[in-house]
Amino acid sequence: MTNPDHEDHKTTVIDIPEAVGVFDSAEDLQAALYDLRMVGIHHSDISLLAGEKALEEKLGKAYWRSADLEDDPNAPRAHFVSEEAVGELEGAIAGGFFFLGSYIAMAAMLTPASTLAASIAAIAIGGSPAAVIGTLLARRVGQRHKEYYTKQIEHGGILLWVRVRDREREDLAVKIMKGHSGRDVHVHSWSE
Predict the structure, then answer these.
(1) pLDDT, tens digit, for every residue of 117-162?
(2) Where are the domains of the chain?
(3) CATH number of the structural domain 2-81+154-188
(4) Are 3 and 13 spatial neighbours (Cβ–Cβ below 8 Å)?
(5) 191: closest CA among 42, 17, 4?
(6) For residues 47 and 80, is the Cβ–Cβ distance under 8 A?
(7) 21 and 183 Cβ atoms separated by less than 8 Å
(8) CB-CB contact of 41 with 160 (8 Å)
(9) What is the pLDDT of residue 113?
């Protein structure tokens, strides 16, 4: 099914129902997402409203509210990324920079003529700046994730869509979303 209302592009939707709800806090959203995953809803069936840049590209600079986009097939979406995945990414960035700096310093200093004390000092000197850079980059990833949620809340709440392939999953998704303070939770007959 194609939505002809939008002139710039066409959005194709499929005939699989989708539960939608709005959350007023990242904590409530995360709790709902964990429970949805626990009952077997696959992460590929979960999507959130895309970030500000994608919204501007697709919808222009007009002011938008979450309530206006709940049932809009043209609303740009983003894949769900768990808090654990963000934490793992932060750890990988910080750890990777630390080990890279340490490895470079170690390789430079571990020659037959170097002493153990000089090698340890080189590792510390080479690893520390890299670890600081890695930590700053990791914090930026976490900050951007928080800013995404803050922007969504400023515009009326964090939108969550869950593709539900049968009546049982539909009922489960609605119950879970409402149980975690989701508001305006409902199901439409299509999904993107």
Answers:
(1) 555 555 555 555 555 555 555 555 557 768 888 989 999 999 999 9
(2) 2-81+154-188, 86-140
(3) 3.30.70
(4) yes
(5) 17
(6) yes
(7) yes
(8) no
(9) 54
DSSP at 191: B
Beta-carbon contacts of 57 under 8 Å, excluding residues fewer than 6 positions away, are 76
Low-confidence ranges of the chain (pLDDT < 50): 1-7, 86, 89-90, 97, 101
The DSSP secondary structure of 37-105, one letter per residue, reads: HHTT--GGGEEEEPPHHHHHHHH-S----HHHHTT-TTS-EEE---HHHHHHHHHHHHHHHHHHHHHHH
Residue 112 DSSP code? T
Q: Which residue has the tokens 């539960």?
A: 19
SS3 143: helix
